[in-house]
TrEMBL record:
It is found in: Membrane. Essential component of the vacuolar proton pump (V-ATPase), a multimeric enzyme that catalyzes the translocation of protons across the membranes. Required for assembly and activity of the V-ATPase. This is V-type proton ATPase subunit a. Its main location: membrane. Belongs to the V-ATPase 116 kDa subunit family. GO terms for molecular function: ATPase binding; proton-transporting ATPase activity, rotational mechanism. The keyword Magnesium does not apply. The lineage of its organism: Eukaryota, Metazoa, Chordata, Craniata, Vertebrata. GO terms for cellular component: plasma membrane; vacuolar proton-transporting V-type ATPase, V0 domain. The chain crosses the membrane at residues 147-167, 386-411, 431-449, 527-546, 558-578, 590-608, 620-642, 744-770. It comes from Junco hyemalis. InterPro entries: V-ATPase_116kDa_su, V-type_ATPase_116kDa_su_euka.
Amino acid sequence: MGSLFRSEEVCLAQLFLQSASAYSCISELGERGLLEFRDLNPKVSPFQRRFVGEVRRCEEMEKTFSECRGLTLGGFSGDRPARPLTLRVQEQSEQLAQELREVSRNHASLRGRLRDLRQCLHVLREGQRFTSQPMTFGAAVQPRGGLPIPALLLCLCSFVAGVIHPWRVTAFERLLWRACRGYLVASFVEMPEPMEDPVTGESITWVIFLISYWGEQIGQKIRKISDCFHCQVYTYPESEASRTEAITRLHGQIQELSVTLEETEKYLAEVLDKVAQVLPTWRVQVQKMKAIYLVLNQCSFDVTKKCLIAEVWCPVRDLTQVQEALRQGSVSGSCFVQRVPTSESPPTLIRTNKFTSGFQSIVDAYGVASYQEVNPAPYAIITFPFIFAIMFGDVGHGLLMFLFALWMVLYEDSPRLRQGTNEIWLMFFEGRYLILLMGAFSIYTGFIYNECFSKATAIFPSAWSVATMANHSSWSSAYLATHPSLTLDPNVTGVFQGPYPFGIDPIWSLATNHLNFLNSFKMKMSVVLGIVHMGFGVVLGVFNHVHFQQRHRLVLEFLPEMIFLLALFGYLVFLIFYKWIKFSAAESMVAPSILIHFIDMFLFTSNAENLPLYPGQVPVQMVLVVLALASVPVLLLGTPLYQWCRQGAPRTVRPGAVGGSMGVTRRSHCGCCPGAAAGHGGTGAAHLDFAEIFMHQAIHTIEYCLGCVSNTASYLRLWALSLAHAQLSEVLWTMVMRNGFVGLSYVGGVVLVPVFAAFAVLTVAILLVMEGLSAFLHALRLHWVEFQNKFYVGAGYKLCPFAFAPDTWE
């Protein structure tokens, strides 16, 4: 079979690499992504391996690259790294990082210096404006001397000026007043332009303060308080001429510094452009080099220390590509690959594409397939959307889901859709093809149920004729006035003209007993589909038995399982179809109950009030129950007795086989099959514990027999959720949308707009999202428990190839 139906054949191989060519060979294999390397030095510490120095050098370069922030880094799309490239990349990256650090440091220093000069200029300007006024500034203070304020200003000769954060002004002013006891004159004013906060980087409007005081002790207190409040204090000249001269000098310094800063920013932009050009490529190359050296640390040296030996898991079909990669990577062409036998279970490899990956993910969520067992994913491509659609059947809802998935499929190459950060959105996008099929199948089942937003559509004329019934009955005007519901009798000639061409007849949506009719139809449909689905799962187990050369299981397991399933529940399906075919509308009143017949079948009795469906029904049912009961001891004791009889017999291993793990089946982990025994013991005549084999077979027998009953009942969720979805849709239409049809006037059109908006929102939120998620989870459970449990183990592990590019096998 192909890779999708069964995992590919994987073998254990050894790579013999020359020391000089090992790096280039591993690099070539990483570009192709063919092999999964095994660690041949599990007991050696990572710090004691041969290439630990190269790994540390790569990590140091990665730290150097991380210093260059704000740059867009690419993915694995660089050139193949050559081994001598390591030192050159390290030298150039360190030189470029050092240059970038120096330029960034100088740029930050110049910006800080320019900010200080501008703040000092604003302080001098505001102070000049205040001190040149004839009146006082700020809060008027009456000192102890009793001198008037203008005269006091002439006596004051000491100033403290600076800027403070606006949040600290009130506390700063209050503390100054209390500490200096009023022997100062303080003024506060906002700076004309906002400036950057050096701590937070935010743009804020600083507050300029100017404090006049007398006394050296008062000045010391003011400076200490300013330091405590993280104020930026500037020198304030005492004379007006000195202040004017300082302002002129600051103007010149600011102009010179602005020119210098502009040139520095240009040079910094050039350095950043250079970094932006080379850093992504360097980063990719260093990551590849680090990955290669980590793989080389998993290899071991031969006795001569001139050759590296690596063990890999490799798909058999890719061995020629591996040899070609080694030939291209080696200088002399002396590197080669050799297949080796093993008793270990190989990893599972199932190649997928963008269509099958979503369905394979559903199966892998239950458990990765054991090596070369049947893969349920290709069958789930059809069965999963169909079972979902049985519970979600509605033409309108399915069409909305189909269009949403179709939009994702058509724009699947858009980076905006692929690189989303919302995890829920990414989950929807990865399963776009699954949603597409679920919508398409929901449209199909919606046509069968004849439901479009809970309303029936008359695609074909109805098979029921009301006019014929009226012509053959005594429906008078008085009778019609007193009977709001009329009964259509199919026994009257011409009233029922035959089955509807496709799906449910639309006249049933008008009937008062349509729910009873749909209950009977959907319940029987769920039972039939469930038994067919389970029987198909049992049949798939045949492919496992044949592939693993365990043909005794065909007689000792598959045959009893099918007899038990078909003798009881297959017979139930037969009764359903037989009753549909035999009894017409004229005989419907005397049709027997299938449920009572099925109960009497297990009780080995008959009910006189419930007529038989066919002659000799009771003996047939007794034979079927006896066959079902007789298959249980065969299923319970057949495989253990067979293994016990073969316990002492020698066993041959097929040449070229990968190992005993080829015999992994549903119960191979317990040692019930020869393959599992070889995998555990490693010898041809491994000892089998009969008690353990019998215990596991007993568990399997009980699980299967009881599971046939419980799983059949579990499929009734198809009936329940289908009815629930239909009723919710009908309630939403009746209680919301119908209220919008209040009239045909303009008022009715205005009212219809918000009503339809509410109907659309509730339809998407409840019926599409919530009901869709519920149907999806129930379909998932039916596949995991009821279907896959019949043949699927899921005890394997994936093949994880060493590859530079992600999604190698997709």
